[in-house]
Amino acid sequence: MNPVQCSQYVYGRKRMRCEEPVKVLEILRLTEQGYSQREIAQSVKCGKSTVGEIQKRCRNCKLHYDVAEEMTNDELKILLYPDSYGHSTKEDPDWPSIHERLRANKRLNLQYLWEEYKEGNTSGLSYSRFCHRYLGWKNESGKNVIMVQNREPGRELFVDWIGDTLNCVFDSSSGDTHTAHFFVATLGDSSYPYVEAFPDEKLDKWLLAHVNELRYLGGIPRVIVPDNCKTATTKPSYYDPVINRSYWEFAKHYEVAILPARVREPQDKAPVESSVGWLETWLLEWLRGKRFFGFEALNIEIQDRVKELVKRPFQKRKGSRKSVFETLDKPA
To answer: Could you read off the pLDDT of 73-96 as tens digits, one per residue?
Structure first.
């Protein structure tokens, strides 16, 4: 008899039936889509009580479908049925140290730290288990409390210059290397980004980037939220920043409101700050070390890379930047 398919007895005591991982995954997927226990039981051909037990075990482990899908069969069995398959002998990494590094350096993310961890622990945790255990540690230690900010789809566009630059544009006629400055814009709900490289951060480049970005998105938001940078404001102020006159003319032409983020209020520009950190890791680091014969070639490479990046699924919500943009932001 297969221990995965039947009930077992240990010291005269009946042990919980261990369902196949593929059935567990389907129960978890349908649960997160809002189906009832009766509907799930009919779909996966099992009892309603079995569905309830699987749901309970997943809740106790704080296991979600996107994490479970990346786990191996053995990892899933060990997590949900520790009495039947034993506990993992793999020790946890130093979560407090990892957490502090993530907080101190916005460029770091879990995947980067996991790859670093695996270099010294070749038989260590898989990436999915690494993330799952880290999130479990955050929940247990009280460090996973997050204030969710709901934003109206398509309403706000956050814009800024990325702080980092790259010396990557080569002038073949003079032999000089030019520095690339990166403009970034991101929509408030989907965090769908637009990135363009320029030789400087002057006003004409700032306005050109806005025009190109609106054309790229295929629509106009109601509000544009810039940082208090020199190209956006002539007088940075917490309560009443003065908008650059040319920028104001741009806003009147496109019938949008310009609402600069308040000084020392990071929540006002959280979407673009988050996107900047994400792009510094997955775009700028990817471009680092490459050379381009002109800004046009560089921007073609940027667009191709960003189109690939926006398809990657979110880590803490359903969908991707591209899917949320197409279903929520773009129609709005």
So the answer is: 777 777 877 766 544 456 778 888
User: How much is the pLDDT for 229?
Assistant: 55
**DSSP letters of 166-234?**
EEEEE-TTT--EEEEEEEEEEETTT--EEEEEES---HHHHHHHHHHHHHHHTS--SEEEE-S-TTTEE
Q: What tokens were used for 218?
A: 């295929």
| Count of Cβ atoms closer than 10 Å to residue 208 Cβ | 14
Cα–Cα distance, 246 to 262 (Å, whole number): 20
Report pLDDT digits (tens) over 202-261: 888 999 999 999 898 888 888 888 875 566 555 544 444 456 788 888 888 888 777 776
| Four-CA torsion 15, 65, 286, 269, nearest 10 degrees | -130
| Nearest Cα to Cα of residue 290 among 180, 163, 174, 169 | 169
Q: Nearest 5°: CA angle at 217, between 216 and 220? A: 120
The rounded distance, in Å, linking the Cα atoms of 271 and 105 is 17
How many residues comprise the chain?
Answer: 332
The pLDDT tens digits of the residues spanning 267-284 come to: 445 555 666 777 887 888
Residue 213 CA to residue 263 CA, distance in Å, equals 25
Q: In b/e form, how buried is each residue of 247-267, taking b as 16+ CB within 10 angstroms?
A: beebbeeeebebebbbeeeee
156-329 is a CATH 3.30.420.10 domain: yes
Which two tokens mark 106?
């916005």
How many Å apart are CA 59 and CA 27, to the nearest integer? 12
- Which of 157, 176, 160, 179 has its CA nearest to residue 168? 179
> What's the 3-state SS for 241-280?
CEECHHHHHHHHHHCCEECCCCCCCHHHHHHHHHHHHHHH
Q: How large is the C-alpha radius of gyration of the chain? A: 25
Provide the residue ranges of all domains of the chain, joining segments of one domain with +: 8-85, 95-141, 156-329
